[in-house]
Design a protein that fits this description.
Pfam families: Methyltransf_25 (PF13649), Thump_like (PF18096). The protein has about 400 residues and is α/β, with parallel strands linked by helices. The protein has helices at about 5-10, 10-20, 30-40, 45-65, 75-80, 85-95, 110-115, 130-140, 155-160, 190, 290-295, 300-305, 340-350, 370-375; strands at about 100-105, 120-125, 145-150, 165, 170-175, 175, 200-205, 220-225, 230-235, 245-250, 255-260, 285-290, 310, 320, 330-340, 355-360, 380-390, 395-400.
Length: about 400
C-alpha cells in the first residue's frame, strides 16, 4: 500500500467508507467498486477500502469480530498471531507482573492488542513504516499501548524502562516463507541475545524451527489450533515459569490443554527431536498424536499417558489395547493389519465393497492419490487405512475412527 492510499484509508472519510461497505463478496466486488466510483469516491480510496474489506473477511479466522475494526496487509495478516494464541502469550507477561513489554517486530499489532486487553503496558516497535502506521491504527483504542516506527534491535530497553520483551522476527521474504532462523529479520541469534539485557524474553518462531536452534535454557512450546500446528515459541526467565523443556499447547474450540516435559537435569540435548518410546505390536487401538505434540517431541510422553507404545521407532503412531480419551491424540479402532502390497490390498478392499477410501500415512513414500488410482475401487462402502511401518516393516492398518 502506497503512503498516499494509506493516508486516505486512515482518514475519517476512509474509516467511514470502510464502515459502510457490505460484507465482502468476490462476486459483487466489481459492482460495489463501480457504484462507489460513480458516486464520486476517490478511485484510490475505493481500491484500498475494498482490499481492506477482503483482508478483514480473511482475518476473521484469526481475530474474530475484532477484524471488522482492524486494518491489514496481506503479509502482515499471514504472519499475525491468532488472537486465541496471542492471549496465551499475553497471560505469561501479565502473570509475571511485567511493567512494560517491548513488542519488537510488532507487525500489525496482534500480540500488542492481546497484551492491551489484559492491561499490560506495551511499547510496539515496527521497522516497516506502513505496517507501523496500521499497527498504530489497530491499537488506537488502548491507552496502555504505544507504537514506534524504528529498528527493533536499536531500542534502548533500559532507557525505556522495559522489563520484558516479546519478539516476532519476520519469517517471510518476497511473499515466501523463510525456514532458516539465520534468515529471519532480525536473525534469531540476534533476538536471543536480548535475554542478556532483559531475561524475560519470548520469541515467536516457525513450527518447523530446527531443534538445533533451541537454546538449552529455553522453554519451547508448539501450538496447534483445531488440529493445525500454527507456531512455536521460545520462552525465558520470568515468562517461562515451566523452566527449561518442551510443551505442546492444544487448542480445540473452547478447550486449552498443555502437555509439558521439563528438562531440569539436562537429560536430553537441545537438538534431540524426541525421547525414545517402547515399540510394541499393533493392539486394539491406534493413536495419532496431535501435530504440536509431535513437533515438541512428546510422542513417548503421550504414550505413557495412554498406556500405549510406538508401532515403529521414530514414527509418530501409538498403539494400545485400551481406549483412553485424550486431547493430545486421535483414537482409531484397529480392524485389521497386514504387510503392504498393492495386489493383496486391492483384493482385500474390493472383497469388502470399499469405494470411498481415506488414506493416512507416516513413515512411507507411498503417495495416497497415486495409490487410490492404482486401487481403482468402485464399491459402495467407506474405509480408512493407515500406511506406515510396524516394527520397521511397510504395513497397512485398517481402522475406523472412535
Amino acid at each position: 500500500m502506497d503512503p498516499a492510499s494509506l493516508t486516505k484509508l486512515l482518514s475519517p472519510a476512509g474509516q467511514e467508507l470502510l464502515g459502510q461497505l457490505p460484507p465482502y463478496s468476490e462476486r459483487e466486488v466489481l459492482q460495489v467498486s463501480e457504484r462507489l466510483r460513480a458516486s464520486g469516491v476517490d478511485a484510490d480510496l475505493v481500491a484500498a477500502a475494498l482490499t481492506q474489506s477482503r483482508l478483514r473477511a480473511r482475518a476473521r479466522a484469526k481475530f474474530g469480530d475484532r477484524a471488522q475494526t482492524m486494518v491489514f496487509t496481506p503479509d502482515g495478516l499471514e504472519q499475525a498471531t491468532r488472537h486465541v494464541v496471542a492471549l496465551h502469550h499475553a497471560r505469561r507477561y501479565a502473570e509475571a507482573g511485567s511493567h512494560l513489554v517491548a513488542d519488537l517486530g510488532c507487525g500489525l499489532g496482534g500480540d500488542a492488542l492481546a497484551l492491551s486487553e489484559l492491561a499490560v503496558p506495551v511499547l510496539a516497535v515496527e521497522a516497516d513504516p506502513t505496517t507501523a502506521a496500521l499497527a498504530a491504527a489497530n491499537l488506537r483504542p488502548y491507552p496502555t499501548a504505544a507504537v514506534r516506527h524504528g529498528d527493533a534491535l536499536a531500542l534502548d530497553l533500559a532507557a525505556e524502562g522495559v522489563d520484558a520483551v516479546f519478539a516476532d522476527p519476520a519469517r517471510r521474504a518476497g511473499g515466501r516463507r523463510v525456514f532458516d532462523p539465520a534468515a529471519y529479520a532480525p536473525p534469531l541469534d540476534a533476538v536471543l541475545a536480548l535475554r542478556a539485557r532483559v531475561p524475560a524474553l519470548g520469541v515467536k518462531v516457525a513450527p518447523g524451527v530446527p531443534y538445533a536452534a533451541l537454546p538449552a535454557d529455553a522453554h519451547a512450546r508448539w501450538v496447534s489450533v483445531d488440529g493445525d500446528v500454527v507456531e512455536a515459541g521460545l520462552w525465558f526467565g520470568a515468562v517461562a515459569p515451566e523452566g527449561p523443556g518442551r510443551s505442546a499447547l492444544v487448542l480445540a474450540g473452547e478447550r486449552a490443554d498443555v502437555l509439558t516435559e521439563r528438562d531440569d537435569a539436562g537429560a536430553r540435548a537441545p537438538d534431540a527431536p524426541a525421547r525414545a518410546g517402547e515399540v510394541r505390536p499393533p493392539g486394539a487401538f491406534l493413536y495419532e498424536p496431535d501435530g504440536a505434540v509431535i513437533r515438541a517431541g512428546l510422542v513417548a510422553r503421550v504414550g505413557e499417558l495412554l498406556g500405549a507404545g510406538l508401532l515403529s521407532e521414530g514414527i509418530a503412531y501409538l498403539t494400545g489395547d485400551s481406549l483412553v480419551e485424550s486431547p493430545f491424540a486421535t483414537a482409531y479402532r484397529v480392524l485389521d493389519h497386514f504387510p503392504f502390497a498393492l495386489k493383496p490390498l486391492r483384493s482385500y478392499l474390493r472383497a469388502r465393497d470399499v469405494g470411498a477410501l481415506t488414506i493416512k500415512k507416516r513413515g512411507t513414500a507411498v503417495e495416497p492419490e497415486q495409490l487410490r488410482r492404482q486401487l481403482a475401487l468402485k464399491g459402495g462402502r467407506p474405509a480408512t487405512i493407515v500406511l506406515t511401518r510396524i516394527a520397521g516393516r511397510h504395513s497397512v492398518l485398517v481402522v475406523e475412527p472412535v
